[in-house]
Task: inverse folding
C-alpha cells in the first residue's frame, strides 16, 4: 500500500510539471470535477457581494491599469489587488508580450484610458525557456508567438525573463510615446518571482523598469512625484 502511494507520489513529482515543449494529455474527469468546484466558488463569490457591487460593474469600466502578464497559472491578480474588478484590464499570453496582443493593449490604453501599463514576467517561465532553446518542432501558431520573444539562446531563465520584460516596456514606449510624453501613461515592467531567483524574497513582485528607467534607485522619484516636488523646493 505504502509502496503504491509512494510510486504515485513519485509519478506526481516527475510528471505534474510538463516542460513547455512536451505534449500533455488532459483528463475530462478532472474537468468535470473542476467545473463543479468553479460553480461552487462562484456561488460563494456572488453571496459575498451585494447587489450594488454588480450594479456598479454593469455601469461600465474605467480600469486604472492595463496589465499584460504571462498566461502561466501561477501568476494571478490577487497578488496585485484584492479588489481588481473594474480596475485591472487583463491581457494574458505566453511570454507577456505586447506584439501578440497589440490590439487588446491599444484598447486598454487608448480607449479605456488606463494610465498604468504594467508588464509582468515571472520566474520559471516556460515560454522564455522555450524561446531560449530550439522550439522548431512546436505547432506553427505557438512558434509564431515565441518568435517575437527576443532573448539570447541558452541563457539563464530569469535573465531571459528580465530581458523580455524590458523589451516589452521598450516596445510599449514606442507604441505609446505620445501619451508617455504628455504624462498620461506610465509604463512599468515587473517580475513576479515566486522562485526567488532575484533574491528579493519568494513571491516578490520586483519592479525592474519604469518608462525605460532600469535603475531602481530612480524609481522612488518616479512613484512619488509629490515628495519630489517638495524636495525640489528646498
Ligand atoms: Zn510564463
Result:
Amino acid at each position: 500500500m505504502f509502496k503504491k502511494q509512494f510510486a504515485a507520489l513519485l509519478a506526481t513529482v516527475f510528471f505534474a510539471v510538463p516542460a513547455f515543449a512536451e505534449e500533455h494529455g488532459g483528463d475530462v474527469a478532472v474537468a468535470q470535477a473542476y467545473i463543479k468546484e468553479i460553480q461552487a466558488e462562484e456561488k460563494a463569490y456572488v453571496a459575498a457581494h451585494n447587489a450594488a457591487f454588480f450594479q456598479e460593474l454593469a455601469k461600465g469600466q474605467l480600469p486604472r491599469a492595463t496589465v499584460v502578464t504571462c498566461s502561466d497559472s501561477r501568476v494571478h491578480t490577487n497578488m496585485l489587488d484584492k479588489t481588481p474588478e473594474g480596475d485591472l484590464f487583463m491581457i494574458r499570453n505566453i511570454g507577456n508580450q505586447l506584439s501578440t496582443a497589440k490590439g487588446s493593449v491599444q484598447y486598454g490604453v487608448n480607449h479605456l484610458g488606463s494610465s498604468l501599463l504594467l508588464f509582468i514576467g515571472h520566474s520559471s517561465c516556460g515560454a522564455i525557456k522555450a524561446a531560449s532553446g530550439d522550439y522548431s518542432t512546436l505547432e506553427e501558431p505557438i512558434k509564431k508567438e515565441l518568435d517575437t520573444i527576443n532573448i539570447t539562446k541558452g541563457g539563464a531563465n530569469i535573465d531571459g525573463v528580465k530581458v523580455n520584460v524590458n523589451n516589452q516596456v521598450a516596445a510599449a514606449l514606442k507604441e505609446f510615446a505620445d501619451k508617455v510624453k504628455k504624462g498620461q501613461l506610465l509604463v512599468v515592467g515587473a517580475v513576479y518571482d515566486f522562485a526567488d531567483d532575484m533574491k528579493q524574497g519568494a513571491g516578490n513582485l520586483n519592479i525592474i523598469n519604469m518608462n525605460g528607467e532600469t535603475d531602481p534607485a530612480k524609481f522612488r522619484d518616479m512613484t512619488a512625484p509629490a515628495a519630489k516636488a517638495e524636495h525640489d523646493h528646498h
Q: What stands out?
A: The chain has ten helices and five strands. The chain has two domains: 28-60, 61-233. The longest strand covers residues 186-193. The pocket of zinc ion is lined by residues 70, 72, 122, 125-127 (CB under 6 Å).
